[in-house]
Each structure stands twice: as C-alpha cells, then as structure tokens.
Amino acid sequence: MAEHEESPGGVPPLDEEAAWAAIVAGYGQEPADPPGSRPFRPIENLLLPEEDVQPLPDAPGKADEPKAPEPPAAPLGSSVVFAPGVGVSGPRDHSLADPDEGPDGAKDEGHFVPPEPELPEADATSKFAWLAVVGGPVLLLLAVLLQWEMTWWLTTLGIGGFLGGFATLVARMSQGDDEDDDPGRGAVV
What we know:
This protein is an all-alpha fold.
C-alpha cells in the first residue's frame, strides 16, 4: 500500500512526519488544562477561599464595626482530616502493647512459655528417600526446561527415584502398634 493513499471514507491519510515533528516540538511543555477544570492549588492555599466563590454579604448595622482579624483555626497546610473518632493522632502514632502486660496493665509473671520442640535426627535412609522423592521430579523438570534429550537412564532415574523414595518412606512409617506404651498409667508429671 502506498504511503499517501486515501483511506476509505474520503479521509486523507495522517502525515506521520508532521505528527512526529509536532510531538518533538512540544516535548517538555505542560499541556493546557481542559475547559471547565480548576487550576491546581498548592497545599498552602487550600484553606484560602477560591477566587470564584463570593463571600456572604455582611448583615446591616455590622458594617460600621471594625473587625479584628481572626487567627486561622488550624495552621496552613494542616488540611489532612482523619476519620471521625480518630482525633488528632493518626494511624502512625499507634504503638503495640507490651507483650508482658496483661489486659489490665499488670505484669503477667506466671505465663508459661513452651520449649522449642526438638525434631528427631533423621537417618541416612530417610534422607536419601526424601532426596529421591524431591530430586526425581526436579530432574525431569530441569531436563524439560533445558531441552535435554530424554534418554532411558534420565527417565528411569527421575521416575524410578520418585517411586522408590516414596515406597521407602511409606514402608518406614510407624505402624501405630506400639506395645511399649501402658495407657493405664495416666498422666506422668
């Protein structure tokens, strides 16, 4: 299609060179505000009345009394308002309660802190079984991602390792037939 052909509907084509020249010429300039929008007001001027708002006329008889300038209710720039009930302090003024204190503010001296549980040491068979269960699928995934040729030994190592490790872990599970426990003794302190 030629560059300057007329598009359907009789609309002349867009001159790309002229459009790019206009974009480059206007680079860095702020675009004009859309019609009807209000100009940007910095935070220092937020408490001041707007230019298009007219103040209410004074009541008759009070015009001859001199007015003392009233100090602003809040300093300029403090236009941030929090939700009702929050008050002067904001969300960043919150502090956490002391974990040693109870709900009434008194120190809780008799609180029991359980010791950290100690995990039993795993033997070599369990470690190799877990390595096979996790390592088999990881090896196959790595082979697919790196596009290795899927040879018979790679497939056997991945699938066989997973199945063998899983079978080993299941076979080594405790059966629950512990005859050493005497349930009739009750709690041991």
